[in-house]
Specification:
globular, 14-stranded antiparallel β-sheet, alpha+beta
Length: 279
């Protein structure tokens, strides 16, 4: 009987240790899930915001020689100068933020240059605009690469639309990690084309692409509900993106909301939803 009690006690101890180890592993895995969900969403939100911002700034600099917010001050404030070269081929515009951080009126720190070359007017079918960067940083994250915008004329609904190809990269300030960003998109001008105002312009964006970290981790994404970009808002106003790490069985869903202009979005995965602040 004594031997049996010793074996039972030993068994209970082993079982307790196994349960403890399993619980610790589960907690660790949950922590990893939370961290991965967050940085997948953060990566995508940063990319969308930075490359969309660059195009918005380029569009407005082309149209006005400055960058204006709705009914008021320049997005750039006193942070940048806009230079237009109308004699070169192709034509060139430079938005220069200088070599030190400047807080722009949209709340973002910027330095460096956005350089835009273009073959024709933004509204002209067949015109091509290429956006590049020279020592350009947003909130201390370096943005590199190119974004090419081609005017494809009008779609079946009579709206101007543009094919967009992004081959870019961001170097993250907090970790020094690099994220390569490749995207193919369609940008449709849904509101404001009939006026000369910039403040009423709105675009719907669809498409897909990949983000690749320096570790080799590949994350695929697909816009499942068209993103709404309005020139009178500093943030993407609505739309959803399905974010799927290579080999994952399910997507994380990044949701920008339903039309409110704010810096909040949500990431949903595995029955859980978290709010993130766009940067």
């Amino acid at each position: 009987m004594q031997t049996k009690r010793i074996i039972s006690t030993s068994t209970l101890i082993v079982l307790a240790m196994m349960l403890t180890m399993t619980a610790c592993k589960r907690d660790k895995d949950n922590t990893v899930d939370v961290e991965e969900d967050t940085y997948y969403a953060d990566d995508q939100a940063r990319m969308d915001q930075s490359f969309n911002d660059a195009q918005t700034l380029a569009d407005q600099a082309y149209e006005t020689g400055n960058v204006q917010m709705k009914g008021g001050p320049s997005i750039l404030g006193a942070c940048a100068t806009v230079t237009r070269d109308t004699t070169s081929t192709p034509r060139k515009i430079t938005i220069d933020f200088g070599t030190t951080n400047c807080l722009c009126n949209d709340g973002r720190l910027r330095r460096g240059k956005i350089i835009i070359t273009y073959t024709g007017k933004y509204r002209d079918s067949g015109s091509v605009k290429t956006i590049g960067f020279d020592g350009y940083y947003v909130n201390n994250n370096q943005v590199l690469g190119t974004k090419t915008v081609t005017n494809m004329g009008r779609n079946s609904s009579g709206q101007l639309y543009y094919n967009i190809a992004v081959n870019g990269m961001m170097i993250l300030n907090t970790t020094g990690d690099t994220v390569k960003h490749v995207a193919s998109r369609v940008r449709t001008w849904v509101n404001g084309e009939s006026t000369t105002l910039l403040s009423d312009d709105e675009y719907r964006i669809t498409g897909s692409g990949t983000n690749t970290r320096a570790s080799g981790k590949v994350v695929n994404y697909n816009i499942t509900s068209a993103l709404l970009v309005a020139l009178n808002c500093n943030w993407i106003k609505e739309g959803t993106i399905a974010i799927t790490p290579a080999g994952a069985s399910a997507a994380r869903v990044l949701d920008f909301g339903t039309g409110t202009c704010d810096d909040q979005a949500t990431i949903s995965y595995n029955g859980k939803t978290r709010t993130i602040t766009l940067r």
